[in-house]
Structure formats: C-alpha cells, structure tokens
Amino acid sequence: MTLAASDIEKIAHLARLSISPQDIPSYARNLSNIIELVEQMSSVDSAQVTPMAHPLDMPARLRPDEITETNQREAFQAIAPAVNAGLYLVPKVIE
Q1: By Cβ atoms counted within 10 A, which residue in 1, 21, 31, 48 is the most buried?
Q2: pTM to 2 decimals?
Q3: pLDDT tens across 38-84, in order?
Q4: Neighbour-count burial for 51-60, b at 16+ CB within 10 Å, e otherwise
C-alpha cells in the first residue's frame, strides 16, 4: 500500500501535526514502508508459534503485594481546589 500526499495531509490533520509540504514525500515513503512491513508480518503463518508473555526467557522478579506508602489522602485533599465526600472535583470537559 502506497500512501498519497493527500493521505499524509489527512493523517497529519487527524494527529494535529504540522508538516511542511516538502516533507510530505518522505513521510509518505516512510509510512508506506511501515505499512508494507506490517502486511509482510501479517502474511507469516504464526499458527505454530507459542505466544510469549515476555520477550526475554527469564522469570520475573516478584515482590510481596504489601502497602509501603503512608496514606496522605487528607494532606493531598487539604490542598486540592475542590473536594466533596473524599472525592476530587474537577471541571467538566466533555459536554
């Protein structure tokens, strides 16, 4: 899949990025290469590959699930702009 200049402009608009017109061909080429790589990787038969939880073959170090921090809720809420019933009140940002 090859991206056109109009595709790059749409992507930049959606991402709220400002790119100069002379950079559009290089962005189109690089993004097209990435999409092509993903298509190649998607075409590989991975049915016999065992999923891994971690890329390194080593056990994860675990620590006890214990609370080590002191509760400073009252101190933090004392300096908060607005609090009600133990909850932080914030301005509504979505109508």
Answers
A1: 31
A2: 0.52
A3: 999 999 999 998 888 778 878 888 999 999 999 999 999 999 999 99
A4: eeeeeeeeee
Strand pairing category for 87-88 and 83-84: antiparallel
Tokens of 63: 């620590």
Largest CA distance in the chain: 58
For 32, residues 6+ apart whose C-beta sits below 8 A from its C-beta are 1, 2, 3
Q: Which SS3 state, helix, strand or coil, does residue 66 take?
A: coil
Closest C-alpha among 19, 24, 22 to residue 6: 24
Q: What six digits make up the tokens of 79?
A: 């300096």
Tokens standing for 84? 């009600």
Q: Kindly write down the DSSP assignment for every residue of 27-95, as one continuous string.
A: HHHHHHHHHHHHHHHHTS--TTSPP-SSSSSSPPP-------S---HHHHHHTSS-EETTEE-------
Note whether 82 and 89 are within 8 A (CB).
yes
Number of other residues whose CB lies within 10 A of the CB of residue 77: 14
